[in-house]
């Protein structure tokens, strides 16, 4: 047992699309501090969520399992998790103090932590009195749409500012500690005060992927938003400008947090649960399909023993738990499907074939609804805020695999999509039926089958059989 375990700080955003910073090639400097901070550690630009939905993704973070195994495929299935020991169990057994501040959207509750500052949601916080209450009322008044004017409340009302205050206050000197800072932003409602509102002008924004036919689910989502907010897509530039302003606001608060905590014997992880269309395809938020805009997430690690490098390997949000297990010298629990990344982060030897592909799941189950059907929605969107994760756009079951520059998507009805992301990064040209793409189609179909077998659930365990498991939870090398 290690006598000096590192502190672990998990910085998490919500609906934060990978690639929207200058270090990732974005033309606007949205997150200068986090870009520089990430540059001192391991940057993982090919990181993916397990599913582009909040609760399923966060359940994967905690349990190290894909949704088909942990059984939480919808935000409304929060309490139905199937798991073994999770991240909090591991750290509690290692005598870590456990702190949480921010948006939960998970199966764990306040009683599972030593300190808990929350819940913060997208339109309310736990300390909504006085000016904070007025701020939350104003957030509800803009109804998740982009604010067309600067937020008429000071920075101190913004949730990232308040959450950072809570997080700094929680760390009381007891070591080792685990601190999970979970920001509700840059999720909608898309709003920021000055100077952030004017920081990125609408005419400075890079071009988007124009509205295109991306299938029934995307069309239903577009129609749903249009019903609620006629002409919504006319405001796409303001929406994107606000989104970038929110990123800079987050960046400033992350700087404040890191400076307050210090970096001595502390490992920082930065992740998000999933991405955001940010106006691409004429869509907002999330809710249809598995495009790169929704499934790729920011992910980096900084701290003692972690080598500064940009890695090209494909990694998952499910890899976080086994990685932390390795870094705090604890065994990976039964039922975990993610892979330990510690050798990769430390610059040690690892089998490259283990990280040459990645897998994502989608869908609430059953058969996919079609665009002419009107199944019940989670909310009555005529009178309340609509839920973009409605029963049409998330119906059915879909699986995705990415390998090198190729991406394959396959659904329960046998419909396939195949994209060459080097030539077609916006995923506009489906090459599933292209004879010239037969070889990558076959290769990715075989790899998808391997992944589907890999995430078959090993739980429950019995005394009569102990599955063979690599210490890092690796399956490679395979030929």
Summarize the structure.
By secondary structure, the chain is an alpha/beta fold. Helices cover 27% and strands 15% of the residues.
Notes on the structure:
Strand 12 and strand 13 form a beta hairpin. The mean pLDDT is 94. This protein is an alpha/beta fold. The strands form three sheets. It has an eight-stranded mixed beta sheet with strand order 5-4-6-1-7-8-2-9, with helices on both faces. Strands 11-12-13-14 form a four-stranded antiparallel beta sheet, with helices on one face. A two-stranded parallel ribbon has the order 3-10. The chain has a single domain, classed as Alkaline Phosphatase, subunit A (3-Layer(aba) Sandwich), CATH 3.40.720.10. It contains 13 helices and 14 strands. Helix 6 runs parallel beside helix 9.
Secondary structure blueprint with pairings:
Elements lengths: L6 E8 L17 H7 L3 E2 L3 E2 L5 H10 L3 H4 L16 H7 L3 E6 L12 E3 L13 H11 L17 H12 L6 E10 L9 H4 L16 H13 L7 H26 L4 E7 L19 H4 L3 E4 L6 E2 L4 E2 L3 H8 L14 H5 L10 E9 L30 E8 L2 E6 L4 E5 L17 H17 L25
Parallel strand pairs: 1-6, 1-7, 2-9, 3-10, 4-5, 4-6
Antiparallel strand pairs: 2-8, 7-8, 11-12, 12-13, 13-14
Helix pairs in contact: 6-9
């Amino acid at each position: 047992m290690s006598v000096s375990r590192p502190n672990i700080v998990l910085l998490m955003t919500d609906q934060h699309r990978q690639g929207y910073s200058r270090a990732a090639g974005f033309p606007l400097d949205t997150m200068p501090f986090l870009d520089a901070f990430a540059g001192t550690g391991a940057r993982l630009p090919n990181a993916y969520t397990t599913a582009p939905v909040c609760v399923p993704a966060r359940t994967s973070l905690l349990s190290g399992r894909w949704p088909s195994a942990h059984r939480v495929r919808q935000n409304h299935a929060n309490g139905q998790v199937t798991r073994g020991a999770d991240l909090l169990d591991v750290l509690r057994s290692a005598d870590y103090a456990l702190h949480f501040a921010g948006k939960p959207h998970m199966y764990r509750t306040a009683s599972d932590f030593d300190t808990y500052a929350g819940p913060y949601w997208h339109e309310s916080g736990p300390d909504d009195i006085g000016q904070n209450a007025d701020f939350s009322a104003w957030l509800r008044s803009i109804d998740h749409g982009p604010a067309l004017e600067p937020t008429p409340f000071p920075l101190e009302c913004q949730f990232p500012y308040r959450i950072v205050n809570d997080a700094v206050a929680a760390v009381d000197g007891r070591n080792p500690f685990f601190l999970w800072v979970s920001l509700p932003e840059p999720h909608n409602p898309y709003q920021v005060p000055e100077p952030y509102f004017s920081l990125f002008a609408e005419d400075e924004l890079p071009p988007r992927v124009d509205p295109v036919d991306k299938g029934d689910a995307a069309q239903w989502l577009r129609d749903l938003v249009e019903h609620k907010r006629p002409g919504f897509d006319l405001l796409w530039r303001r929406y994107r400008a606000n989104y970038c302003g929110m990123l800079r606001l987050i960046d400033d608060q992350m700087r404040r947090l890191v400076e307050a905590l210090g970096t001595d014997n502390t490992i920082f992880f930065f992740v998000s649960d999933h991405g955001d269309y940010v106006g691409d395809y004429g869509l907002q938020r999330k809710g249809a399909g598995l495009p790169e805009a929704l499934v790729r997430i920011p992910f980096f690690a900084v701290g003692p023993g972690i080598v500064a490098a940009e890695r090209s390997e494909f990694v998952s949000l499910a890899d976080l738990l086994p990685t932390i297990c390795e870094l705090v010298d604890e065994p990976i629990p039964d039922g975990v499907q993610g892979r330990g990344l510690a050798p990769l982060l430390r610059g040690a030897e690892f089998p490259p074939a283990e990280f040459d592909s990645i897998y994502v799941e989608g869908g609430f189950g059953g058969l996919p609804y079609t665009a002419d059907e009107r199944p019940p929605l989670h909310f009555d969107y005529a009178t309340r805020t609509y839920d973009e994760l409605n029963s049409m756009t998330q119906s059915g079951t879909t699986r995705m695999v990415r390998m090198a520059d190729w991406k394959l998507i396959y659904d329960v009805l046998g419909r396939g999509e195949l994209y060459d992301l080097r030539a077609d990064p916006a995923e506009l040209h489906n090459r599933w039926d292209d004879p010239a793409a037969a070889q990558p189609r076959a290769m990715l179909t075989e790899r998808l089958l391997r992944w589907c077998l890999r995430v078959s659930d090993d739980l429950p365990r019995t005394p009569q059989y102990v599955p063979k498991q690599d210490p890092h939870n690796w399956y490679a090398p395979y030929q």
